[in-house]
Amino acid sequence: MLERALLLVLRFYMYMLMALVVIYFVRHYVFSYNRFFCRQRVSYNDIVDDDYPRLTIMIPMHNEEKVARNIFEALLKCAYPHDRLQIIALNDHSTDNTHDIVEVYVHMSRTNHGKMPEITALHRNSGPRGKQNAINEALPIATGDIVLVFDADYLPPVGILRTLAVCFKDPEVGAVMGRVIPVNTHRNLLTRMQDIERAGGYQVDQEARYNLGLVTQYGGTVGGFRRQLMMDLGGFRPNVVAEDTELTYRLLLSGWKVAYANRAECYEEVPETWEVRAKQIRRWSRGHNQVMYSYFLPLLKTRYLSFWEKIDGLLLLGLYFLPLLFLGGLMAMAVLLFFGEAIFIGGILPLFLSITYCSIGNFAPFYELGIATLLDGSSNRILLLPFFFYYFMFSLWYTALGAMDAIVDVLSGRAVEWEKTVRFREADPQADIPKSMEGGVA
Amino acid sequence: MTKEKLHINVVFFVAIALEVWIGLYFFAPVLTSASTYFLQHDFLKDSVMTTFDFWGGRQLQVLVMKVDNPSPELCHIVAIACLLALLFVKRTRLPLPVIVMINILATMLFLFTILFMLFPQRFHMDSVSLANFFVAMSLASWGTMPILFGLSMAIFPAGLMNKILLSILLQVILLPLFVLKYLAFLLACSTMTFLVLPLAVTLLGPLLDVIYMISLFSWFLGRVAQRLRRDTGVWQWT
Question: Looking at chain A, which residue has its C-alpha nearest residue B150?
Answer without folding.
Answer: A367
